[in-house]
Amino acid sequence: MDYSKFTDLKRENKDLINLNPLQTAGKLTKEAQKVLIEFGDGYSVCDFCDGVLDDIEKPPVKTFTREILPKFLNCDVVRITNGAREGMFIIMHSLTNPKDTILVDENAHYSCLVAAERCRINVVKVPNSKCPIDAIDVANYEPLIKKHKPKLILLTYPEGNYGNLPDAKKLGAIAKKYNVPYALNCAYSIGRMPVNMKELGADFVVASGHKSMSASGPVGLIGMNKKYENTVLAKSKDYPNKVIECLGCTSRGATIATLMASFPEVEKRVKNWDQELKKAQWFCSEVEKLGFVLIGQKPHKHDLMFFRTDVLYEISKKHKKRGYFLYKELKKRGIIGIKPGHTKSFKLSTFGISRKDLVRVVKAFSEIIEENRKLLA
Ligand SMILES: *Cc1c(COP(=O)(O)O)cnc(C)c1O
Q1: In Å, what is the CA distance from 368 to each residue of 32, 39, 282, 344?
Q2: Per residue in 89-99, is it b (16+ CB within 10 Å) or e — as a string?
Q3: For residue 85, how far is its CA from the centre of ligand 1 (angstroms)?
Q4: Domain that includes residue 113, residue range
Q5: Could you tell me the CATH number of the domain that includes residue 305?
């Protein structure tokens, strides 16, 4: 057996302009690239571990999780997880018993629902009255809280289909009124934009390192109010050091190392969110001139945008490469990240892409439409 296809792994397209929302804010910083090699070996952060990941001082995981991250998120306690979904599972699993009910916004990520299934709890979806055009109206939670007395309410901030940013603070006030634990899924926000847990009135936040914090995943974090620390982070009776919900330790090597190495840059870019958002809004207005229609909140409040693109769909009907023409034409111009075959509508993200490169993207779309204009007749 020739194993070269496993040993000589190459990632084609690595250096092209990538518009895939999953990937734009997960690119490693230069510092993290170096650290990835340095800490690539298995269990590489465990050289000086006394049994608690979050207390390791060399490398400085302790300072990172016990001081820097709680301050960054304005919460009391932070723990490293293997991703946003693991964080949601930990919260659900520790706060509920099988057959309990939780509320989840209709636009929640599938992993959130799978996490609930693994906990054997009931999920009531809070309907999005204006779906999919606008963010969920969080007032819709209130009657359902009264009706179901949920053990937890969860809001996706923002959701990953349209990038709509709901009014998390308003839901914070509702959660407080009914004294119900409130978790924010910040997979698409923490590391991109400011998230202040206490100001939003949330009890929990979860983040995804590989999605929005320039880390090599899987890695994430969970932030919480002190009030829930003992419940959610309960220790094993046989191993009093070990958090049960984390199965003792979560990240055990390169993943936490890259999360730390990228952090200074992440902290800086979050402060620059206004500019990042302006860039997204500018890009939106440019592609709207080409006939794209933004589906979602307007003005948009996030770099993830979903467009209906009738003009490209019309071309695809007559193009000899059918739906794949767009992918091929973009790739020819050094651009990837729109799913092959998609022309009717698609989502993209402008996060971290320079204006100069975005000008190239707009120009590419414009050229592709012009070159195929005859097919629109
Ligand atoms: C991407 C995403 C997730 C999953 O994040 P992981 O860190 O990979 O578990 C969960 N929720 C939302 C809203 C997402 O966009």
Answers
A1: 36, 44, 20, 15
A2: bbbbbbbbeee
A3: 6
A4: 30-269
A5: 3.90.1150.10
Residues 284 and 253 both lie in one domain? no
Ligand 1 atom nearest the C-alpha of 209 is 7
To test ligand 1's pocket by mutation, which of 111, 136, 192, 219 has the most ligand atoms within 8 angstroms of CB? Answer: 111
**pTM higher than 0.90, yes or no?**
yes
Could you check whether the bond before residue 143 is cis, i.e. omega within 30 degrees of 0?
Answer: no
Listed in sequence order, the DSSP H helices in the chain are 4-7, 30-38, 61-63, 69-73, 84-95, 110-119, 141-148, 168-178, 197-200, 209-212, 229-232, 254-271, 273-288, 310-318, 325-332, 355-371
Same domain? 263 vs 356: no
Residues 355 and 216 in one domain: no
pLDDT digits (tens, 9 = 90+) for 114-167: 999 999 999 999 998 765 677 889 999 999 999 999 999 999 999 999 999 999
The C-alpha atoms of residue 79 and residue 109 are separated, in whole angstroms, by: 21
357-366 burial string, b = 16+ CB within 10 Å, else e? bbeebeebbe
List own/partner pairs for 243-247 with CB under 8 A and 24 or more apart. 243/79, 245/90, 245/93, 245/94, 246/53, 246/79, 246/81, 246/90
- Give the Cα separation of 262 and 179 in Å (integer): 36
Residues with CB under 6 A from ligand 1: 83-85, 109, 111, 156, 159-160, 185, 187-188, 208, 211, 220
Model confidence over 344-363: pLDDT tens digits? 999 999 999 999 999 999 99
Tallying the residues shown for the chain, one arrives at: 377
Phi, psi (deg, nearest 5) at residue 332: -55, -30
- Kindly report, residue by residue over 319-333, the tens digit of the pLDDT: 999 989 999 999 999
Q: State how beta strands 77-81 and 220-224 pair.
A: antiparallel
Q: Any residues with CB less than 8 A from the CB of 218 and at least 6 apart, and which?
A: 82, 83, 86, 209, 210, 255
Q: How many CB atoms lie within 10 A of CB 43?
A: 11
Q: Which of 289, 250, 257 is closest to 52 using CA atoms?
A: 250
Domain count, the chain: 2
Which residues share a beta bridge with 204? Answer: 183, 224
Which of 233, 251, 269 is the last residue before a domain boundary?
Answer: 269
